[in-house]
Amino acid sequence: MVLKNAFLLKDADSGIQKLDLKIENGKISEIGKIEEDGIDLSGKLVMPAFYNTHTHAAMSMMRGISDDDTFDVWLFKKVLPLEEKLDEEMVYYGTMLSMMEMASKGIAGFIDMYFFLDEVAKAAEEFGMRALITRGLVDENGDDNGRLQKNLDFAKRWNGKGLIKAGFGPHAPYSCSMGYLRKIADIAKVENLPVHLHLYEAEWERDEYDFREILDVFKYVKLIAAHAVQFKEDEIRELARENIFVSHNPSSNLKLGNGVARVAEMIEKGVNVALGTDGAASNNSLDIWHEMRLAALLQKMRNPANLKVSQAIKMATEMGAKAMGINAGKIEAGMEADLIVVNIDKPHYLPIEDLKSHIVHAGSSGDVFATMVAGKWIYHDGKFPTIDEREVLKGFKRAHTRLMGS
Ligand SMILES: [Zn+2]
């Protein structure tokens, strides 16, 4: 496939150029002036796709159920009782619906924490979206009702199958015992799989455990730490480790009243920071484009020099790909062909000289024309070529009615 005549943003640090692009076997094979017939993308911008590094995709089943509650009420009174009722079909359609939303907003892959993992993987496989799938793990005095074993069995079945990757998902240090976290860390190390957990999201978590102890437990595994809102300035340095990725979820953190993570300081101190939306029950949209701008604005509240355009784009693209463990996030020969086509033939993309700034500060996910994953369109001009859209919407509504009625 050859994409022609588009403006091209190769990566977060580059300027925008007019170059053609060739894609072979799911990878980018050539960039430059290509003398072959291809798809004409005049008036459009091609750039690396986004990655959503923290979500619970099936929670689209609960979008809007608890908009004005505290974090505790939201989690313990609203979300957890409904999650007790979820079954395979609900998780399958919830995940499918979320992937439709994400694909239409330029997202090529997501890091998930949930349960009924085979349904999540099956949905992602059918859709053609990348997914790093982890099971939410909790225990009571070491008893986890077989959850960790299920997570491990899933990883053995699915890790590396197509675009699917697996990891472990200890929910949070306050819902897992220290012995259990150590056990998860040991298995993750042996299996060489990442760990995905919520860390220092709410302020009261600071009284429950010491983050240093947690970082120490996961010293030898890749750790995707969602939120990291409550880190104080002098503690941030301890997150700057090659194996740690912070998933910054600004909308969810604001909506649940948890605050604003010190992202500008994190980036300055060399912490790997990527972006996430969290689930649709706390955001309520799965829109990395939106998170990118919000992240930039929140850091500028303290200093307008914070979080420059290129840093914001890098969190959404390159850092997301690194957190997921894939060779993408930039448009370079040899890299995975995960990209988005943006319709820039709109007033808010002028003047064209500052196009890169408009991506962060003027554009929105509504401008996404197409999303490609590993060389295949998963969203194109309002359509979802890999799935039966009507069947998914019908299935979602049917499953949702059962969830609320049961
Ligand atoms: Zn979460």
Please explain how this structure is put together.
The chain has 406 residues and is an alpha/beta fold. It contains 14 helices and 18 strands. The protein has two domains: 2-48 and 330-380, Urease, subunit C, domain 1, CATH 2.30.40; 50-324, TIM Barrel. The protein has helices spanning 71-83, 88-104, 117-127, 147-158, 178-191, 205-208, 211-217, 250-255, 263-268, 288-300, 309-316, 318-324, 355-361, 389-405, and strands at 2-4, 7-9, 16-18, 20-24, 27-32, 39-40, 44-48, 50-55, 107-114, 130-137, 164-170, 195-199, 223-227, 244-248, 272-275, 339-343, 368-373, 376-380. The strands form four sheets. It has a six-stranded mixed β-sheet with strand order 3-2-7-16-17-18, covered by helices on one side. A four-stranded mixed β-sheet has the order 5-4-1-6, with no helix packed on it. Helix 4 links the parallel strand 10 (130-137) and strand 11 (164-170). Helix 2 runs parallel beside helix 3, helix 2 packs across helix 14 and helix 10 runs antiparallel to helix 11. The longest helix has 17 residues, at 88-104. The relative contact order is 0.17. The mean pLDDT is 96.
